[in-house]
Amino acid sequence: MRSDQGERVYDSSRRRAQASRNREAILDIARAEFFANGYASTTMASIAKASGFSVDTVHKAFGGKAGLVRALYERGLGGAGPVPAWVRSDDMQEHERDPHAIVRSWGELSSEVAPLVVPILLLIRDAAASDPEMALLLRQSEDERRERMRRNAHTLADAGHLRSGVALDEAADVLWAYSAPETYERLVLRCGWDASRYGRFVGDALAAALLRPPC
């Protein structure tokens, strides 16, 4: 492609699209390798071999095993839709005025995101016992989730939706507890609930614990 002055202009859109597809392919393979073999036993070489890319390419894209796990975690947080889950949550909170609709939406988003991100968090939790990078990632993920839940609590508190006697800090604690990966682990992975039932439970539990009774 050339500009109006006759100079060649490089169109990188196709290259960016291919790089994105390659990245997703590597992440899919890495996820399968980690779940099949565990974090410690999975190597960058095994991921590279299974994905068909060189070890150097995988390193450059993700910076090592910890970087791959971080990328898997962040991809899971985005949910399954074309718009990241946290963007949809922020938009919903900005425009929704019904507090019960807000917490129901949080439950629905939980049912979408948890199946993607909780298995990664459990992998991180298990690896953290012996790997400093995974221990750091576990702390960071908990800090990020707690900060997110505090912002959600502010949404309810600032609009006057919290029931009498529930302070902002308590609301943040409740939101943090119900969004914990252990909640999904127990109800879905151990008790056999499906994701939709889990999402309804989270929404109903948050409404009962935090919101003023309907008039």
UniProtKB/TrEMBL annotation:
InterPro entries the UniProt entry points to: Homeodomain-like_sf (IPR009057), HTH-type_TetR-like_transc_reg (IPR050109), HTH_TetR (IPR001647)
Domain of life, per lineage: Bacteria
HTH tetR-type domain residues: 20-80
DNA-binding region residue numbers: 43-62
Family matches, as Pfam families: TetR_N
UniProt KW keywords: DNA-binding, Transcription, Transcription regulation
PANTHER family reported in the protein's UniProt record: HTH-TYPE TRANSCRIPTIONAL REGULATOR BETI (PTHR30055:SF234), HTH-TYPE TRANSCRIPTIONAL REGULATOR RUTR (PTHR30055)
Name of the protein this chain belongs to: TetR/AcrR family transcriptional regulator
